[in-house]
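Report of the visiting student (M.T.), summer placement. My assignment was to run the structure pipeline on a short list of targets and document each run. The first record concerns Acyl-CoA thioesterase 16.
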Amino acid sequence: TESGSNITKDILSLSPVRGLSTMSDTVAPMLSVFPSRALVDENFKVVVENLPPGSPVTLHSLHQCEDKHYWEAYGHYISNHRGTVSVTDDLSFGGTYTGKEAMGLLWSMRPVPGSREGLRLKKRNVCSPLLVNISVYRGHVVEGFREQAPLASSLTERWYMAPGVQRIEIREKGVRGTLFLPPGPGPFPGLLDVWGGGGGLVEYRSALLGSHGYASLALEYFAPGELKSSDLEFNYFETAFNIVKDHPQVMPDKVGIFGLSLGASLTLLLAVESSIIKPSCCVCVSGNHLYPRGGSIKEVHQPTLKSFFLVISFKVGRINCPVMVVNSHDDQNWATVESSEDVSSNLLTQLCLC
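After the run finished, the structure tokens were exported:
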């Protein structure tokens, strides 16, 4: 696309490939990335060759997001006796990540110095790739990458939607979202994908799930900034679940719910309270086992916890499907660690009583 072409030009202009400075008068360093075009969660191999043995170098990645902000990651390496650095096999001694991290140049990306606070890297258009320029620099560099010419560079494409995945807009029975279907006739296991309090329609997780064989519905249940005025009710999510379950290319007895943050709380709420749907599994990422009185979703996101009450032991015990709880120890929105421990303890108690 034209916009993708412009982004490519912008990234390459910051890390020129022509006129590379070399560490040797005879053979220029060579950087290779394989595969150069792949899914965003597919491991890639980044290798630098033709370096002098024992040379300190910095591997650097640069991405310009759709909001025109720049993101970067970098690791510090020392070439081996053959003059080679492999990000997959070698240790990073510093940078935005350390240790042996094959995907460190992607997962540790952060806004470049001088960016405004509060930025988040989100892919809005899943029909286009993340363009990531990977470069190698002389020495262990920590800043000023734009002012230096790299020894070598390579532009890579990382996709959320694999070839053959169908992207289908859903406007059915009052439900808004996007369904991603894997290639082929199916039937496929299904997922209802429920995002958090940021609002809007977020597609990239469902697109990736569709790329890995799941029919996944990315659900929109309120517009950004409008949750408090939302009049959506509990049955909105039940209806969305049944849209996935009743799809002719979905296995009706293998439909789960995937929730993040506020969506994780709603996932547990559905698993505990709904008498209409029976999820085959639940995945709860960085959430809390709290939910509102009544059934109105607008009560979920009030600024205090007065509108919440805990799903106490016997209610968590109602969940009769496998539950995976994932949390971060540095979560600054929810008490995710305490919540996950409590949910796990109560589910184990239920298993012991059965």
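The first strand starts at residue 30 and ends at 34. Residues 336-353 form the longest helix (18 residues). I thank the supervising group for their guidance throughout the placement.
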